[in-house]
User: Fold this.
Amino acid sequence: MTNEVGRSAAPEPCTLVIFGGSGDLAKRKLVPALYNLLLDGMLPTSFAVLGIGRKAFSDDEFRASVKEGVQQFSRQALDEPRWKNFAPRIHYQVGAIDDPASYGTIRTRLEQIEATHQLPGNRIYYLAIPPDSFAPACEGLKQAGLVQDPKRLHPFSRVIIEKPIGQDLASAQAINATIGAVFDESQVFRIDHYLGKETVQNILVLRFANSIFEPIWNHKYIDHVQITVGEAEGVGTRATYYDGAGALRDMVQNHILQLLCLVAMEPPYSLDPDVVRNARIDVLRGLHPIVGKDVERFTVRAQYSQGTAHGKAVPGYRRESGIPPDSITETYVALKCFVENWRWAGVPFYIRTGKAMAKRASEVAVQFKDIPQILFNGNQAAPLAPNVLTLRIQPEEGMAWRIISKVPGSKAQTHPVEMNFKYGDAFSVPSPEAYERLLLDVMAGDASLFMRRDAVEASWQWVTGILDGWAAQQTRWLPEYSAGSWGPVEADRLIESDGRAWRKL
Ligand code: BG6
Assistant:
């Protein structure tokens, strides 16, 4: 029997206004996500899209451009008749974000679109634009009377923003203040697309919908946790952004810390969005700060050198096009951290992530404590492998339990075996893309899977401690790892000096 829990409200008829409409995100992710929701019968009955951008597209040119995106990136193939019905709901308006005059035009255009599609005036503004454009966009919307009072539930105004929400704590606070000056927190949806991934959502289901995990989910039984997010691709075409960010800001501050929150949080007392978000933020607040000289003991940063990754020759990071030859931006980071509370006292969380690694593979591995060295584990020279519960986030979505089993035969031999659960085998439907779930949640006004202002700032506060510690090191070079490997020897030492080892993926 399948039970339905979670989002209580249904997605409501609305217009999605995409600032940065002619950009990559709209084409690769947003419109394909909407199209899949349409095919799955999940889109509200009345719905429209208005792309806003500097490019001089007509409605038809914009439709043709996003159609290409659907053809290339959609989870489900393009079906011409369905697209033909959907396309008239997609519109485009040329507009410059920093020109206050644009917003009057946007308002008129929105009113026309709403009249055509019989929409009630609910509007979702997706700011797919650089953070330095957030202020003029918010101000322009406010001045044009395009932001509803949050106390009036209908018609609603909501805003979606994406990372990077800042470079450090101070800049994140400034962005939040800019948005907060125009929108109430209840109207703000900060996307961390990892929270929209099926396997990531499943962490809470696994922990709190099964009786066997919670009793052992603590320092008495768990030896340590490893979180790995490996990417095979190098920096690609995003040199300017990436070189200003690096792996800690790009992956740890948001996605990986959110994974850690889900693994480490206390059971929330309900599935109410704020109750769940409060439980997540407690983990961030409990993270032991890594500051000053502690960065040397608890962190490793590195850059990829020449090698082969994802089947292609990769130049060293400093030789990638657009990267300064003396860059000290890390493309890899490994960390050891502790959540200081009763449940996790003394349990290290090891984190590693990098570009140009051996393969694309992300997982959370919970390693349980060794059993006593008696009975089947009596051979001190060859101790039994510990139990490990692995939550595979991607690409082979699933879960595995490593347990010790008897080898069939007359001898009392044991061997580690894996009990494997694969999403693809267990459920015949493919997992939706993260953006599908997230857009639907915004239409329904459910903020559970979004980052609240205090959470963004709490995670930046912790990360800024590390960034400051690194800056004080005044390093001119970083350790290297060959592209296509699993990281530098320094990262091996980080974990091996504790008598543990990175998992082989
Ligand atoms: C983005 C980062 O947030 O996440 C990228 O900016 C990274 O650098 C991407 O490649 C990873 O997302 P996914 O869903 O491919 O794991």
Summary: The pocket of 6-O-phosphono-beta-D-glucopyranose is lined by residues 163, 231, 250 (CB under 6 Å). Residues 453-473 form the longest helix (21 residues).
